[in-house]
Design brief:
Elements lengths: L4 H9 L18 H11 L35 H9 L16 H12 L25 H9 L19 H27 L2
Helix pairs in contact: 1-6, 2-3, 2-6, 4-5, 4-6
């Protein structure tokens, strides 16, 4: 009876959510690492294989470039972080695996994944949300792009709630919005607006 029940079931059927369903709590706040892993799996991005040995040699200089400052290949989310980095979803530096993901971060990653950031505007972008002033400046372009393609809509009161932390249920709904957009709406938009 949960609002995201069908979304959650869909992600389980796709192998996106992998934890035991008996232990799944739809109202649990999702971490950045969990969300990025879900996106990588949902979009079937190539996941690099990690070396079998986890111990690093300290007596030799390692020439491998450091991409993330706060996780390494010993972390279970590292392969997904690398996959997201190689796809251009995230940059170098701190990965912040345990920080809770916010709505604006979740939507920004979705728009980057789809590759339609260019539909947002540079500069002082205004979005149609009542809490536009709460949207971080770095996220405005992607949020505007999401509004343009109809993927991001205000709630019944006209708010986006960009700083609210995302639960696992909400993440399932957001990821399914992206999947449905890629499966159906993008095709229709292409046929109606580009081919004609």
């Amino acid at each position: 009876g949960h609002f995201a029940e069908s979304d959650i079931k869909k992600l389980y059927s796709m192998g996106v959510y992998t934890e035991s369903p008996a232990k799944f709590n739809p109202n649990e706040i999702m971490t950045r690492a969990e969300y990025i892993k879900s996106l990588v799996i949902a979009m079937k991005l190539p996941i690099p294989e990690m070396p079998k040995t986890t111990k690093r040699k300290t007596n030799k200089k390692d020439n491998t470039p450091v991409i993330f400052t706060d996780i390494n290949e010993d972390n279970k989310y590292y392969p997904y972080a690398i996959a997201a980095y190689e796809a251009g979803l995230i940059g170098k530096g701190a990965f912040n695996p345990n920080s809770h993901i916010t709505r604006e971060q979740a939507y920004t990653l979705i728009i980057r994944m789809i590759g339609l950031e260019q539909l947002g505007f540079y500069g002082n972008t205004y979005t149609p949300f009542m809490d536009d002033n709460k949207i971080s400046s770095w996220a405005k372009r992607q949020i505007q792009a999401g509004v343009t393609i109809g993927l991001i809509r205000p709630d019944e009161n006209g708010y986006l709630l960009p700083q609210r932390k995302v639960t696992k249920a909400e993440a399932a709904a957001i990821i399914n919005q992206m999947i449905d957009y890629l499966r159906y709406t993008l095709k229709v938009d292409y046929q109606e607006k580009i081919l004609l």
